[in-house]
Design the sequence.
Protein backbone atom coordinates (compact mmCIF):
# COMPACT_ATOMS: atom_id res chain seq x y z
CA UNK A 1 0.00 0.00 0.00
CA UNK A 2 2.83 2.42 0.83
CA UNK A 3 4.60 1.77 -2.48
CA UNK A 4 1.32 2.26 -4.30
CA UNK A 5 0.92 5.64 -2.60
CA UNK A 6 4.43 6.69 -3.66
CA UNK A 7 3.98 6.07 -7.34
CA UNK A 8 0.37 7.27 -7.39
CA UNK A 9 1.35 10.59 -5.82
CA UNK A 10 4.28 11.06 -8.20
CA UNK A 11 2.24 10.00 -11.22
CA UNK A 12 -0.32 12.69 -10.39
CA UNK A 13 2.28 15.45 -10.80
CA UNK A 14 4.24 16.74 -13.77
CA UNK A 15 7.02 14.26 -13.04
CA UNK A 16 8.10 14.03 -16.67
CA UNK A 17 9.55 17.53 -16.41
CA UNK A 18 12.05 16.38 -13.77
CA UNK A 19 14.40 13.49 -14.48
CA UNK A 20 14.77 12.65 -10.79
CA UNK A 21 11.17 11.56 -10.54
CA UNK A 22 11.65 9.04 -13.34
CA UNK A 23 13.93 7.07 -11.02
CA UNK A 24 11.43 7.30 -8.17
CA UNK A 25 8.66 6.08 -10.47
CA UNK A 26 10.79 3.17 -11.70
CA UNK A 27 11.75 2.02 -8.20
CA UNK A 28 8.27 2.39 -6.75
CA UNK A 29 6.42 0.67 -9.61
CA UNK A 30 9.03 -2.08 -10.03
CA UNK A 31 9.04 -3.05 -6.37
CA UNK A 32 5.29 -2.65 -6.04
CA UNK A 33 4.79 -5.20 -8.83
CA UNK A 34 7.39 -7.57 -7.37
CA UNK A 35 5.87 -7.26 -3.90
CA UNK A 36 2.43 -8.10 -5.26
CA UNK A 37 3.93 -11.11 -7.07
CA UNK A 38 5.59 -12.32 -3.85
CA UNK A 39 2.32 -11.80 -2.00
CA UNK A 40 0.42 -13.90 -4.54
CA UNK A 41 3.18 -16.52 -4.44
CA UNK A 42 2.82 -16.90 -0.69
CA UNK A 43 -0.97 -16.64 -0.86
CA UNK A 44 -1.08 -19.58 -3.28
CA UNK A 45 1.46 -21.44 -1.09
CA UNK A 46 3.84 -21.93 -3.99
CA UNK A 47 6.90 -22.13 -1.69
CA UNK A 48 5.53 -25.47 -0.48
CA UNK A 49 5.34 -26.74 -4.05
CA UNK A 50 8.73 -25.36 -5.10
CA UNK A 51 10.60 -26.40 -1.98
CA UNK A 52 13.96 -26.61 -3.79
CA UNK A 53 14.10 -22.80 -3.99
CA UNK A 54 15.58 -21.24 -0.83
CA UNK A 55 12.62 -18.91 -0.21
CA UNK A 56 13.92 -17.24 2.96
CA UNK A 57 17.14 -16.32 1.15
CA UNK A 58 15.26 -15.10 -1.93
CA UNK A 59 12.97 -12.99 0.25
CA UNK A 60 15.91 -11.56 2.20
CA UNK A 61 17.76 -10.58 -0.99
CA UNK A 62 14.59 -9.04 -2.41
CA UNK A 63 13.92 -7.01 0.73
CA UNK A 64 17.54 -5.87 1.04
CA UNK A 65 17.60 -4.77 -2.60
CA UNK A 66 14.29 -2.97 -2.20
CA UNK A 67 15.59 -1.22 0.93
CA UNK A 68 18.74 0.03 -0.79
CA UNK A 69 16.95 1.21 -3.91
CA UNK A 70 14.18 2.84 -1.88
CA UNK A 71 16.88 4.74 0.05
CA UNK A 72 18.06 6.20 -3.25
CA UNK A 73 14.48 6.87 -4.36
CA UNK A 74 13.61 8.58 -1.07
CA UNK A 75 16.71 10.79 -1.16
CA UNK A 76 16.11 11.62 -4.82
CA UNK A 77 12.45 12.40 -4.23
CA UNK A 78 13.10 14.50 -1.13
CA UNK A 79 15.92 16.43 -2.77
CA UNK A 80 13.81 17.21 -5.84
CA UNK A 81 10.91 18.72 -3.87
CA UNK A 82 11.00 22.47 -4.40
CA UNK A 83 8.98 24.49 -1.89
CA UNK A 84 9.02 27.53 -4.18
CA UNK A 85 7.21 25.67 -6.93
CA UNK A 86 4.61 27.72 -8.77
CA UNK A 87 2.31 24.71 -8.73
CA UNK A 88 1.39 24.24 -5.07
CA UNK A 89 -0.48 20.97 -5.64
CA UNK A 90 2.66 19.43 -7.18
CA UNK A 91 4.64 20.46 -4.11
CA UNK A 92 2.13 18.87 -1.74
CA UNK A 93 2.00 15.62 -3.69
CA UNK A 94 5.77 15.40 -4.07
CA UNK A 95 6.30 16.11 -0.38
CA UNK A 96 3.74 13.42 0.50
CA UNK A 97 5.45 11.02 -1.93
CA UNK A 98 8.76 11.69 -0.15
CA UNK A 99 7.14 10.93 3.20
CA UNK A 100 5.61 7.69 1.96
CA UNK A 101 8.87 6.72 0.23
CA UNK A 102 10.55 7.06 3.63
CA UNK A 103 7.88 4.88 5.26
CA UNK A 104 8.21 2.31 2.47
CA UNK A 105 11.99 2.29 2.87
CA UNK A 106 11.58 1.67 6.61
CA UNK A 107 9.03 -1.09 5.98
CA UNK A 108 11.36 -2.87 3.55
CA UNK A 109 14.21 -2.43 6.05
CA UNK A 110 12.18 -4.06 8.82
CA UNK A 111 11.20 -6.83 6.41
CA UNK A 112 14.87 -7.33 5.59
CA UNK A 113 15.63 -7.74 9.29
CA UNK A 114 12.88 -10.30 9.81
CA UNK A 115 13.67 -12.19 6.60
CA UNK A 116 17.33 -12.33 7.68
CA UNK A 117 16.23 -13.82 11.01
CA UNK A 118 14.06 -16.34 9.16
CA UNK A 119 16.92 -17.22 6.82
CA UNK A 120 19.30 -17.79 9.72
CA UNK A 121 16.64 -19.69 11.65
CA UNK A 122 16.58 -17.22 14.54
CA UNK A 123 12.87 -16.59 14.28
CA UNK A 124 11.62 -19.93 15.58
CA UNK A 125 9.36 -20.10 18.58
CA UNK A 126 8.22 -22.85 20.93
CA UNK A 127 5.41 -23.95 18.62
CA UNK A 128 7.57 -24.32 15.52
CA UNK A 129 10.49 -25.90 17.32
CA UNK A 130 8.28 -28.80 18.51
CA UNK A 131 7.18 -29.76 15.01
CA UNK A 132 9.14 -32.60 13.43
CA UNK A 133 8.77 -34.53 10.23
CA UNK A 134 8.02 -38.17 11.04
CA UNK A 135 6.33 -38.93 7.75
Sequence:
Amino acid sequence: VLGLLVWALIADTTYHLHAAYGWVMFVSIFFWILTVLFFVTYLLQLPLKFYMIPWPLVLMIFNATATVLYITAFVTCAAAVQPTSWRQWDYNRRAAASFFACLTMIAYGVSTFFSFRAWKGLGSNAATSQVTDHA
Remarks:
- The chain has a mean pLDDT of 84.
- Residues 10 and 82 are 14 Å apart (CA to CA).
- Residues 51-134 form one domain.
